[in-house]
Amino acid sequence: MNSLIFEQTVTMSFLERAQEEEIMDDLSINDDGLRQTLAELDVINKWLGGNNPTLRGVRKLLHGRNKNDEIVIVDMGCGSGEMLRLIDESFRGEFERLKLVGIDANPHVIAYAKSKSLGHDIEFSVKNVFEKNSMNCDIIISTLFLHHFNSIELESLIKKWQSGATFGVVINDIHRHWFAYYSIAFLTHFFSKSYMTKYDAKLSVKRAFKKKELSVFYEGMGWRSVQVSWCWAFRWLVILRN
Protein backbone atom coordinates (compact mmCIF):
# COMPACT_ATOMS: atom_id res chain seq x y z
CA MET A 1 0.00 0.00 0.00
CA ASN A 2 2.83 2.37 0.90
CA SER A 3 4.52 1.74 -2.44
CA LEU A 4 1.26 2.55 -4.24
CA ILE A 5 0.90 5.83 -2.35
CA PHE A 6 4.51 6.70 -3.16
CA GLU A 7 3.98 5.93 -6.85
CA GLN A 8 0.83 8.06 -6.97
CA THR A 9 2.56 10.94 -5.18
CA VAL A 10 5.51 10.85 -7.55
CA THR A 11 3.25 10.70 -10.60
CA MET A 12 1.11 13.62 -9.40
CA SER A 13 4.16 15.82 -8.85
CA PHE A 14 5.00 15.61 -12.57
CA LEU A 15 1.51 16.14 -14.01
CA GLU A 16 2.06 19.81 -14.87
CA ARG A 17 5.04 21.86 -15.98
CA ALA A 18 6.83 23.74 -13.20
CA GLN A 19 6.93 27.51 -13.57
CA GLU A 20 9.90 28.41 -11.36
CA GLU A 21 12.84 30.06 -13.10
CA GLU A 22 16.21 28.38 -13.32
CA ILE A 23 19.30 30.10 -12.01
CA MET A 24 20.61 30.28 -15.58
CA ASP A 25 17.61 32.41 -16.55
CA ASP A 26 19.29 35.29 -14.69
CA LEU A 27 21.23 36.94 -17.53
CA SER A 28 23.36 38.98 -15.12
CA ILE A 29 25.18 35.93 -13.78
CA ASN A 30 28.83 35.84 -14.81
CA ASP A 31 30.82 33.66 -12.47
CA ASP A 32 32.83 30.46 -12.47
CA GLY A 33 29.61 28.60 -11.69
CA LEU A 34 28.14 29.63 -15.04
CA ARG A 35 31.17 28.45 -16.98
CA GLN A 36 31.37 25.24 -14.95
CA THR A 37 27.69 24.60 -15.68
CA LEU A 38 28.11 25.11 -19.42
CA ALA A 39 31.05 22.71 -19.41
CA GLU A 40 29.13 20.11 -17.39
CA LEU A 41 26.09 20.33 -19.65
CA ASP A 42 28.32 19.51 -22.61
CA VAL A 43 29.66 16.46 -20.77
CA ILE A 44 26.16 15.30 -19.76
CA ASN A 45 24.87 15.65 -23.32
CA LYS A 46 27.87 13.84 -24.73
CA TRP A 47 27.71 10.82 -22.45
CA LEU A 48 23.92 10.51 -22.35
CA GLY A 49 23.55 10.93 -26.11
CA GLY A 50 21.65 14.19 -25.77
CA ASN A 51 23.16 15.77 -28.88
CA ASN A 52 22.18 12.96 -31.23
CA PRO A 53 18.51 13.90 -31.69
CA THR A 54 19.41 17.38 -32.97
CA LEU A 55 21.98 15.98 -35.39
CA ARG A 56 19.44 13.44 -36.63
CA GLY A 57 16.84 16.16 -37.17
CA VAL A 58 19.26 18.40 -39.06
CA ARG A 59 20.26 15.51 -41.32
CA LYS A 60 16.62 14.85 -42.18
CA LEU A 61 15.99 18.48 -43.09
CA LEU A 62 19.17 18.57 -45.19
CA HIS A 63 18.34 15.37 -47.07
CA GLY A 64 18.07 16.03 -50.79
CA ARG A 65 19.30 19.62 -50.58
CA ASN A 66 21.72 20.99 -53.15
CA LYS A 67 25.17 20.63 -51.63
CA ASN A 68 26.42 23.68 -53.54
CA ASP A 69 23.84 26.01 -52.02
CA GLU A 70 24.50 28.15 -48.98
CA ILE A 71 22.75 26.57 -46.00
CA VAL A 72 22.12 28.78 -42.96
CA ILE A 73 21.50 27.07 -39.62
CA VAL A 74 20.67 29.15 -36.55
CA ASP A 75 20.88 27.73 -33.03
CA MET A 76 18.45 29.58 -30.75
CA GLY A 77 19.65 29.58 -27.15
CA CYS A 78 22.99 28.17 -28.26
CA GLY A 79 24.63 27.99 -24.83
CA SER A 80 28.25 26.88 -25.10
CA GLY A 81 27.98 26.46 -28.87
CA GLU A 82 28.65 22.73 -28.63
CA MET A 83 25.73 21.81 -30.87
CA LEU A 84 26.98 24.11 -33.63
CA ARG A 85 30.49 22.73 -33.33
CA LEU A 86 29.13 19.21 -33.76
CA ILE A 87 27.10 20.30 -36.80
CA ASP A 88 30.21 21.95 -38.22
CA GLU A 89 32.17 18.72 -37.80
CA SER A 90 29.34 16.51 -39.09
CA PHE A 91 28.14 18.43 -42.15
CA ARG A 92 30.86 20.83 -43.30
CA GLY A 93 32.33 18.18 -45.59
CA GLU A 94 28.98 17.75 -47.39
CA PHE A 95 27.88 21.38 -47.44
CA GLU A 96 30.92 23.61 -47.91
CA ARG A 97 28.83 26.80 -47.86
CA LEU A 98 27.41 26.03 -44.46
CA LYS A 99 26.73 29.13 -42.38
CA LEU A 100 26.29 28.53 -38.66
CA VAL A 101 24.95 31.14 -36.26
CA GLY A 102 24.50 30.90 -32.50
CA ILE A 103 22.11 33.22 -30.68
CA ASP A 104 21.83 33.64 -26.92
CA ALA A 105 20.50 36.45 -24.75
CA ASN A 106 23.32 36.16 -22.21
CA PRO A 107 26.48 38.02 -23.30
CA HIS A 108 28.58 36.00 -20.86
CA VAL A 109 27.37 32.75 -22.41
CA ILE A 110 28.18 34.06 -25.90
CA ALA A 111 31.67 35.03 -24.75
CA TYR A 112 32.16 31.48 -23.46
CA ALA A 113 30.84 29.98 -26.72
CA LYS A 114 33.27 32.08 -28.76
CA SER A 115 36.18 30.99 -26.60
CA LYS A 116 35.28 27.33 -27.13
CA SER A 117 34.73 27.63 -30.88
CA LEU A 118 38.12 28.84 -32.08
CA GLY A 119 38.96 27.06 -35.32
CA HIS A 120 35.29 26.71 -36.25
CA ASP A 121 33.54 28.94 -38.77
CA ILE A 122 30.65 29.92 -36.49
CA GLU A 123 29.10 33.31 -35.80
CA PHE A 124 27.73 34.16 -32.37
CA SER A 125 25.36 36.98 -31.51
CA VAL A 126 23.84 38.35 -28.31
CA LYS A 127 20.14 38.65 -29.05
CA ASN A 128 16.75 38.11 -27.47
CA VAL A 129 14.99 35.41 -29.50
CA PHE A 130 11.74 37.37 -29.32
CA GLU A 131 13.22 40.39 -31.13
CA LYS A 132 11.53 41.25 -34.41
CA ASN A 133 14.75 41.41 -36.41
CA SER A 134 15.79 37.79 -35.91
CA MET A 135 17.67 36.35 -38.87
CA ASN A 136 15.98 34.51 -41.72
CA CYS A 137 17.61 31.15 -42.33
CA ASP A 138 17.09 27.63 -43.65
CA ILE A 139 16.99 25.67 -40.39
CA ILE A 140 16.42 26.73 -36.80
CA ILE A 141 17.54 24.35 -34.08
CA SER A 142 16.66 24.44 -30.40
CA THR A 143 18.32 22.09 -27.93
CA LEU A 144 17.26 22.13 -24.27
CA PHE A 145 15.98 25.67 -24.69
CA LEU A 146 12.22 25.77 -25.09
CA HIS A 147 11.40 24.37 -21.65
CA HIS A 148 12.44 27.79 -20.32
CA PHE A 149 9.22 29.34 -21.66
CA ASN A 150 5.52 29.11 -20.88
CA SER A 151 2.90 28.00 -23.41
CA ILE A 152 1.97 31.52 -24.53
CA GLU A 153 5.61 32.43 -25.13
CA LEU A 154 6.21 29.13 -26.93
CA GLU A 155 3.34 29.63 -29.34
CA SER A 156 4.56 33.13 -30.19
CA LEU A 157 8.14 31.96 -30.62
CA ILE A 158 7.35 28.97 -32.83
CA LYS A 159 5.16 31.08 -35.12
CA LYS A 160 8.07 33.48 -35.47
CA TRP A 161 10.44 30.64 -36.27
CA GLN A 162 8.03 29.18 -38.80
CA SER A 163 8.16 32.38 -40.82
CA GLY A 164 11.95 32.60 -40.53
CA ALA A 165 13.13 29.05 -41.33
CA THR A 166 12.81 28.02 -44.99
CA PHE A 167 13.33 24.27 -44.45
CA GLY A 168 12.00 23.94 -40.93
CA VAL A 169 12.73 23.67 -37.22
CA VAL A 170 14.43 20.98 -35.13
CA ILE A 171 13.51 20.85 -31.44
CA ASN A 172 15.35 18.64 -28.95
CA ASP A 173 14.03 18.94 -25.41
CA ILE A 174 13.41 16.97 -22.25
CA HIS A 175 10.67 14.45 -21.51
CA ARG A 176 9.19 15.32 -18.10
CA HIS A 177 9.29 12.03 -16.20
CA TRP A 178 10.00 11.04 -12.63
CA PHE A 179 12.78 8.64 -13.63
CA ALA A 180 14.57 11.36 -15.58
CA TYR A 181 14.25 13.69 -12.59
CA TYR A 182 15.66 11.31 -10.00
CA SER A 183 18.36 10.07 -12.36
CA ILE A 184 19.71 13.55 -13.04
CA ALA A 185 19.39 14.39 -9.34
CA PHE A 186 21.58 11.39 -8.51
CA LEU A 187 24.15 12.12 -11.21
CA THR A 188 24.52 15.81 -10.42
CA HIS A 189 24.64 15.21 -6.65
CA PHE A 190 27.65 12.94 -6.97
CA PHE A 191 29.43 14.23 -10.05
CA SER A 192 28.65 17.94 -10.47
CA LYS A 193 30.83 20.68 -9.00
CA SER A 194 28.42 23.45 -9.97
CA TYR A 195 25.70 24.80 -7.70
CA MET A 196 23.83 25.86 -10.84
CA THR A 197 23.90 22.42 -12.45
CA LYS A 198 22.68 20.75 -9.26
CA TYR A 199 19.68 23.08 -9.05
CA ASP A 200 18.85 23.73 -12.70
CA ALA A 201 19.20 20.17 -13.99
CA LYS A 202 16.39 18.90 -11.77
CA LEU A 203 14.20 21.92 -12.40
CA SER A 204 14.72 21.57 -16.15
CA VAL A 205 13.05 18.16 -16.02
CA LYS A 206 10.10 19.56 -14.07
CA ARG A 207 9.74 22.41 -16.58
CA ALA A 208 9.91 20.04 -19.55
CA PHE A 209 7.22 18.36 -21.64
CA LYS A 210 4.83 15.44 -21.73
CA LYS A 211 4.08 14.27 -25.26
CA LYS A 212 0.64 15.88 -25.44
CA GLU A 213 2.15 19.24 -24.48
CA LEU A 214 4.35 19.22 -27.57
CA SER A 215 1.29 20.14 -29.61
CA VAL A 216 1.97 23.79 -28.74
CA PHE A 217 4.78 23.57 -31.32
CA TYR A 218 2.58 22.61 -34.25
CA GLU A 219 -1.17 22.47 -33.62
CA GLY A 220 -3.04 24.72 -36.05
CA MET A 221 0.15 26.24 -37.47
CA GLY A 222 0.08 24.71 -40.94
CA TRP A 223 3.44 22.94 -40.97
CA ARG A 224 3.89 20.81 -44.09
CA SER A 225 4.81 17.86 -41.89
CA VAL A 226 5.39 17.16 -38.20
CA GLN A 227 7.47 14.33 -36.78
CA VAL A 228 7.62 13.63 -33.03
CA SER A 229 9.81 10.87 -31.61
CA TRP A 230 11.15 9.85 -28.21
CA CYS A 231 14.91 9.48 -27.89
CA TRP A 232 17.30 8.33 -25.21
CA ALA A 233 17.88 9.70 -22.66
CA PHE A 234 14.39 11.09 -22.05
CA ARG A 235 14.37 13.48 -24.99
CA TRP A 236 11.73 14.55 -27.47
CA LEU A 237 12.78 15.18 -31.04
CA VAL A 238 10.31 17.35 -32.94
CA ILE A 239 10.95 18.01 -36.64
CA LEU A 240 8.74 20.70 -38.17
CA ARG A 241 8.92 21.05 -41.97
CA ASN A 242 7.91 24.13 -43.93
Question: What attributes does this structure have?
Answer:
methyltransferase, alpha/beta, 242 residues, seven-stranded mixed sheet, Methyltransferase family protein, 8 helices, SAM-dependent_MTases_sf, Rossmann fold
Describe the structure.
This protein is an alpha/beta fold. It has one domain: Vaccinia Virus protein VP39 (Rossmann fold, 3-Layer(aba) Sandwich), CATH 3.40.50. 40% of the residues lie in helices and 20% in strands. The protein has helices at 2-12, 32-47, 52-62, 82-91, 107-116, 151-164, 178-191, 195-206; strands at residues 71-76, 98-104, 122-126, 137-143, 165-174, 225-231, 235-241. Helix 3 (52-62) crosses helix 4 and helix 7 (178-191) runs antiparallel to helix 8 (195-206). The chain starts with a helix and ends with a strand. The model has no long low-confidence stretch (mean pLDDT 94). GO terms for molecular function: methyltransferase activity. It comes from Sediminitomix flava. This is Methyltransferase family protein.
Largest sheet: 7 strands, mixed
Q: Would you list the SSEs in sequence order as H and E?
A: HHHEHEHEEHEHHEE
- Sheet-strand content, in percent, reads 15-25%
Rounded mean pLDDT is: 94
C-alpha termini separation: 51 Å
Name of the CATH superfamily: Vaccinia Virus protein VP39
CATH fold name: Rossmann fold
The total count of strands amounts to: 7
Structural class by SSE content: alpha/beta
Strand order of the largest sheet: 3-2-1-4-5-7-6
Instruction: Specify the number of helices.
Output: 8
What shape does the CA trace take? globular
Instruction: Give the total of domains.
Output: 1
What is the CATH architecture term?
3-Layer(aba) Sandwich
List the uncertain runs.
none
The CATH class, by name, is: Alpha Beta
Give Rg in angstroms: 18 Å
Helicity range of the residues?
40-55%
GO biological process, one term: methylation
Keywords: Methyltransferase, Transferase
Protein name: Methyltransferase family protein
Domain Methyltransferase: 73-161
